[in-house]
Amino acid sequence: QVQLVETGGGLVQSGGSLRLSCLGSGRLFSHYIVGWSRQTPGKERHFVAAISRGGGMTNYTDSVKGRFTISRDNAKNTVYLQMNSLKPEDTAVYYCGAKRAGVDLAPPFDNWGQGTQVTVSS
Hints:
The protein has 122 residues and is mostly beta strands. The chain is 0% helix and 48% strand. The protein is built from no helices and eleven strands. It has strands spanning 4-7, 10-13, 18-24, 33-39, 46-51, 58-60, 68-73, 78-83, 92-99, 111-112, 116-121. Strands 2, 4, 5, 6, 9, 10 and 11 form a seven-stranded mixed β-sheet that branches. It starts with a strand and ends with a strand. 33% of the residues are buried. The model has no long low-confidence stretch (mean pLDDT 96).
């Protein structure tokens, strides 16, 4: 299985931008569908976005459509989440996950990283 590490979180003002990165280990990164989810303390983890193995198809939850963009660079074993027009309600720990089986750009995913904190001030 692949190991994942998320980076890029931080503190930004409402309306600002961040780019998160998900770095995967191994040679088979392109075999995995990769997605992002987020979670706040005491809340369930919610799906944010996912991308197909080759990067040609994406899926987003409604609340981030038009603001977030998921992309990948398989040569770098990396998936990105560009987050623009950030809102306080986007504050959460963001996790990337991966799965080899299936075709759906949606949960569940089999592997998860440690997460990176995103905080958006009002």
